[in-house]
Description:
TIM Barrel; six-stranded parallel sheet
Amino acid sequence: MSSSKHSSELRRLALSVLQPGFVGTEAPDWILRDIGDGLASVVLFSRNIVSTEQVARLTAQLRAENPDLIVAIDEEAGDVTRIESATGSSRPGNFALGTVDDAELTEAVAADLGRQLRTAGVSLDYAPSADVNSNPDNPIIGVRSFGSDPDVVARHTAAWVRGLQSSGVAACAKHFPGHGDVAVDSHHDLPSYPAGRDEIAAQALPPFRAAVAAGVRAVMSGHLLVPAYDPGLPATLSRAILHGLLREELGFDGLVVSDAIEMGAVTRRHGIDGATVKAVAAGVDAVCVGGESAEEATVALLAKALTAALTGGELPEERLAEAAGRVREFARWSAGLRAAGSAGEPAGDGIGHVAARRAVRLTGAARAALPLTAAPHVVELAPVTNMAIGKETPWGVAEPLRERLPGTTSVRVRGQELEEGTVALESCALAPAAGRPLVIVARDAARHAWMSRAVTGLTAARPDAIVVEMGLPGTTPAAAAQVFTHGASAASGVAAAEVLTDGSAG
């Protein structure tokens, strides 16, 4: 074989293990060219999405270059939504489903999402989050987890996987071996999970074992250090974790996908090219190149780094061939499902709304205070959300309340505004609510000192105020009238507004 032929084949091999994003609602020329040259997967984010119909056109355009192309999406439903990023998710997220704790409901919600994604031409969904949220201060998981009990999380992870995959879209359990007990956001730096192997086996691994038993087609590695298995390298770059633990001990034989390789947790020390090579060498089959680095030059850089690592001996050719083989096998399975016909339309029976409604909980004081009969003033306390949650995704209770009680007024307040003194609760929250109901909407008040102080101050001034907590329930004054939605999806906001106006909850 001539060296130029060999190098072009190596480039095809290298491209086949990358899973890049791109900018735009139509396919840019470079991505179509790269697909022609061997790129086997792409990933979609909210920047690529206007509607299901437009995504179906986009995926058809991409697959004209390669009918077996894998199209992935980062769609968890709930707070982390791409397919409905402009409107907010019409389905509640994991924490709401874990709170209801009806595995059949969870399976039905995931199957409904799967039908929508399949109609759009998506073949792989980076969901569900199988993380057990054992650290309530976790800045990155929170309501994205089914809960803090490993058995509950395992039961619902399996149900979600079964539901999504019944619609012909592959599920991807993340973030292996479990991102729930960390206090650092891996978008920025490297979190550590310092537990011993026995604790990891009891706390973090049950949902992944359940996902494997349910036939999950993909598992995503987490960018976190797990010293009990590898004191030097994060899971994404660790052969001990990806091969020893995931393949050998858990018996997983599907596709291993990395979390976004441009994240600070791995690039800060190794660079994006070094992290990519180390990830594939460690056992990753498809490297997700997501966020801001989704451009032609980055993909070229990574393909070049992989081929250089082959010739330099840093990456064994049989490991790259094995990864490419797994990608091919996944693509064939997925293309076979597409050829077998459509999954049917999303149910349209509002299963997401049913689930969100069933997840709402009230305190006794709230039961006594509801329903609201007069138009309230709504104060929404807005945190700075982590990078997984789209900045453009709407949330809250004011809009759906306004539809039900015309005359509802609202204000959204950020911590920085209170701390800088540019906004005072007296003038924006209490004065407009004089003589009418006051609804305070919080999102993880227990995790944000300023928000907790604001809730305490407002309920002291207005003991009759109703607090709607859309994040993790924390410890707030027991006497306060509280409504818990267990997530901030659009579906959960509507469910809260209904409960506020009709007084009943799930």
